[in-house]
Amino acid sequence: MGRLIFGAALLFVLAVGWGWISSLWVRVDTVTWIVPEWKNAAMSMRLIIVSDPHWKPGDGEKVQKLVESLNAEEVDAVLLLGDFPYGNDSQSGMDPKQYAALLKKCRHPMYVVLGNHDSLYGYETVRDAFLAESIPVLQAESVMLYGDHGETLQLGGVDDILTRRDDVLRLGVPKRKRADVPYILMSHTHYIASIIKPESRPTLVVSGHTHGGQICLPGGTAVGELVGNLRSDEVMSGLQYVKSQPVLISRGLGYSILPIRLFCPPQLIILELKSGSVKAS
Fold this sequence. Notes:
This protein is an alpha/beta fold. It is 23% helix and 22% strand. It is built from five helices and eleven strands, in the order αββαβαβαββαβββββ. The protein has helices spanning 2-22, 60-71, 96-103, 116-132, 165-171, and strands at residues 27-35, 44-50, 77-80, 110-112, 141-146, 152-157, 183-186, 204-207, 238-242, 245-249, 267-275. Strands 5-6-7-8-10-9 form a six-stranded mixed β-sheet, with no helix packed on it. A five-stranded mixed β-sheet has the order 1-11-2-3-4, with no helix packed on it. The radius of gyration is 19 Å and the shape is globular. The chain starts with a helix and ends in a 6-residue tail after the last strand.
């Protein structure tokens, strides 16, 4: 019995240690989405998706390293999907003015939607910190992005449906402006798919929130309900279909409650939009 207990304790310590080390190794994964609306074979755009950094006070170096990583990539825009502060109040998270100022040093255009932890920290405080640095926060609105070979892309954003549901339902999802232009919708969670009306249906929703489950079995199956009250059988990460709506879910960068990621490394996603038919890689 003593050996069994010792073995179990050792396995637990090794798992926690490996989970902590894994939380430090950010993977950059590429997903290709083929855009039938773009007829010219040369048309393409690259977007990098950042979600759930959960920065604590004193995490300035982490933000700087993220900016360096973003600047090293050749992309058309950076999509920030919310949950910037750690914890559930303004004491446990990093000052939004600090990380907004550091993110401003990114050489690529940036667009923001906010998540549930941003609301818990103080929605207006986080939003205004980005706006003070001229970083757009998309709240039930969209913008048009343009590429070098005639590409046009509609990029929309909505507030967090978990903590600002009344506002989201009142304002709705930005409508698709043109049938011949692809439409990417930014939302902190994939739950937005349940309220999208036909006239607002995007080509693709990009979201975060799930942390990919954070603590998983080999292969990525979540083992519990650590993050966001998600059941282990819910969609967690990658390209999914939620109520027939295509959704690309990022595992994100940070962690919740426990400072570990087991078989679920932090992730940046490069979304490559190209002309043709749909596939993911």
